[in-house]
């Protein structure tokens, strides 16, 4: 068509894509989904969602984001904004499924079923699976979804101190789990420092 302008959405910044999406340009929002879909699904899997469940919640999160795109002001990253939407939707799903009460329980441990030796490479996703449910979800909300401790406490309907405890215990366990060969590197740092 003469006078029409073809926009190359792949070359635009997220904030520009949001501006186009806010005026109804679905292809612009499609580019945002293409860019950030796997990160949102990854966050949900780290929170404990099974792959199909993560796909469903991620889809709902992007639909919510599309409906509310005019609310995105560009003050933070779009990825962080949609991850917070996804995290909150997943928490609501857990509440509906009556699973959330498990997260408030103190001292619930999961066992490591990998049976691998200490020298085996361990990735973060596998390490997160070894945490108690409450620890995993609190660590993921605060570090992967970017929520503050207070925001996580509000989203989980837990006392702030409980969220902080879960995060501290979870991080301590992750440090131990991910430390090289029984903490030999940490020991060397302590002796030298």
Q: Could you characterize what this model shows?
A:
The chain folds into 2 domains: 12-98, Rna Polymerase Sigma Factor, Chain: A; 99-104 and 122-186, Winged helix-like DNA-binding domain superfamily/Winged helix DNA-binding domain (Arc Repressor Mutant, subunit A, Orthogonal Bundle). It contains 9 helices and no strands. α1 crosses α2 (26-46). Helix content is 62%, strand content 0%. It has helices at residues 14-22, 26-46, 51-67, 78-96, 124-129, 133-144, 149-156, 160-178, 184-192. It is elongated. By secondary structure, the protein is an all-alpha fold.
State the main characteristics.
193 residues; mainly alpha; Rna Polymerase Sigma Factor, Chain: A; 2 domains; disordered C terminus
Question: How does the helix and strand content classify structurally?
Answer: mainly alpha
Radius of gyration: 20 Å
Query: How many separate domains?
Result: 2
- Strand proportion, as a percent range, falls in under 5%
In brief:
This protein has 193 residues and is mainly α.
SSE arrangement:
Blueprint: H1 14-22, H2 26-46, H3 51-67, H4 78-96, H5 124-129, H6 133-144, H7 149-156, H8 160-178, H9 184-192
Helix pairs in contact: 1-2, 2-3, 2-4, 3-4, 6-8, 7-8
């Amino acid at each position: 068509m003469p006078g029409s302008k073809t926009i190359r959405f792949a070359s635009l910044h997220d904030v520009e894509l949001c501006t186009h999406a806010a005026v109804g340009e679905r292809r612009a929002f499609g580019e945002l989904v293409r860019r950030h879909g796997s990160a949102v699904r990854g966050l949900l899997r780290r929170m404990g969602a099974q792959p199909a469940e993560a796909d469903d919640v991620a889809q709902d999160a992007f639909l919510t984001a599309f409906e509310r795109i005019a609310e995105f002001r560009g003050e933070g990253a779009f990825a962080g904004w949609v991850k917070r939407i996804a995290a909150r939707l997943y928490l609501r799903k857990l509440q509906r499924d009556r699973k959330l009460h498990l997260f408030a329980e103190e001292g619930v441990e999961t066992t490591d079923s990998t049976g691998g030796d200490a020298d085996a490479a361990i990735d973060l996703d596998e390490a997160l699976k070894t945490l108690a449910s409450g620890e995993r979800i609190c660590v993921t909300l605060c570090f992967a979804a970017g929520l503050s401790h207070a925001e996580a406490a509000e989203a989980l309907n837990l006392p702030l101190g409980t969220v902080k405890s879960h995060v501290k215990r979870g991080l301590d366990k992750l440090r131990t789990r991910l430390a090289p060969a029984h903490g030999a590197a940490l020991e060397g740092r302590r002796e030298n420092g």
